[in-house]
Amino acid sequence: MLVAVLVLSVVVALWADSQLNRVDATPAEQISNTAGTNWLLVGSDSRQGLSDEDIARLGTGGDIGVGRTDTIMLLHLPTTGEATLMSIPRDSYVNIPGWGMDKVNAAFSVGGPELLTQTVEEATGLRIDHYAEIGMGGLANMVDSVGGVEMCPAEPIQDPLANLDIQAGCQEFDGATALGYVRTRATALGDLDRVVRQREFFSALLSTATSPATLLNPFRFFPMISNAVSTFSVGDGDHVWHLARMVLAMRGGIKTETIPIAYFEDYDVGNVAIWDDVGSEALFEQMR
């Protein structure tokens, strides 16, 4: 029986790895190696592949092509110790190589994963080792495949633009509600509140996906694996065992951070977030 389980595990892993969508996310020139292992985690607002029924259910609006990045996070896994999950506000005003100063999420729009990776590396001084991206439909499907995710919002949120209407307190989110929850900016601090909710949701989804109730239930485990490999995009050199290693490392605990913002300013590209130079450099230095 043990041999059969091991063989099945290997077969499932190889099948899952072959189904992953791979993209070119590694710049031609990267900065020098830094400590530990760094993942760039991206949530795209692309609607590609969504049916009319999906668009109506999820409240995403029509197809906008390649899309932009609603979520940008850097996950740092040290050789020893606790992992750090750092949010990069999408309106951060940074230099985009070859394009000049703009909001960080513009790098994805004009140059895809490769330019976004290069932009984040140059802005933070942290080398990106792995890349993972998921779109709107993929996120919602992942939540539904594990039977929902429990979240405990501190306040009620109503946001027709995100198709969201929730009350305060612990409750079970289905895929559509979870998607609205990580998309909405309809709270006092806008995008700064949103990046906190995104990290909370990511941790809750990870906990649910790796719980015995999911891993030991074939009616949840196999749909989850199928949805994950068909909707995730990873870098050319990334494999399913890298994703598994990331998940296992995060099970040991996660420290969450947001890049410190000094102030907001209006420029020709819109209202942007200006980083606190001293605070952000101190945060990056802890991970180098």
UniProtKB/TrEMBL annotation:
State if Acyltransferase is listed as a keyword: no
**Which InterPro entries does UniProt cross-reference here?**
LytR/CpsA/Psr_CW_biosynth, LytR_CpsA_psr
State the UniProt keywords alphabetically: Signal
Cell envelope-related transcriptional attenuator domain: residues covered: 68-209
* Signal peptide annotation: 1-16
Q: Cross-referenced Gene3D superfamilies, in alphabetical order?
A: LCP protein (3.40.630.190)
Q: Which family does it belong to?
A: Belongs to the LytR/CpsA/Psr (LCP) family.
**PANTHER family to which the protein is assigned, alphabetical:** POLYISOPRENYL-TEICHOIC ACID--PEPTIDOGLYCAN TEICHOIC ACID TRANSFERASE TAGU (PTHR33392)
**Annotated NCBIfam families:** lytR_cpsA_psr (TIGR00350)
Protein's name in the database: Cell envelope-related transcriptional regulator
The species this protein belongs to is Corynebacterium callunae DSM 20147
High-level lineage: Bacteria, Bacillati, Actinomycetota, Actinomycetes, Mycobacteriales
